[in-house]
User: Fold this.
Amino acid sequence: MIFDNKITVDRAKKVLKPGLLILIAALIAMACWFAHYLISLPSPSEKLTVWIATSYVTFDGDTLDTVRQTAQANGITTCNFILRNPDDQYYDAAFSLSGYYSSDIFILPEEQVERYAPTALFLPLENTDGYKYTDKTIGLHLKDDIYVLINYRSTKDEAFLLDVAKFLADSQQEVE
Assistant:
């Protein structure tokens, strides 16, 4: 017994109706677009994320552009500035899900710093003055009771993050 299992155009037309062919082509096109989208997303090492938990601090466009240019010189392709209201009922959930794990630099009011300092979330800073916790400086003074801190979980170069934090602190000092 011989089986003829060749795929021919006539057989394909009988099995696959034109509507089904269009659906398959659309699914393939969507899968290709989605794969391209996922591949083109910057990796975590190519993103700088600044978590801002106060509305009392504003940065002008020049400051943000300088941060982006400095980041690009260090291999960073995307800079995200996430503004959150610490009085929001969902702030703690957002901070623990997003800020804690994905942010590189924090701009927090003192009450937030006091709340999270015991968790060892903030990188101790060498040879700097600022917010002290257990005899270690963990934050640079920005203005009033607001500080710039570095996330110890960040995989970015510490010197680069310290330069960005100092620049942000100094730019706000100039405004006052």
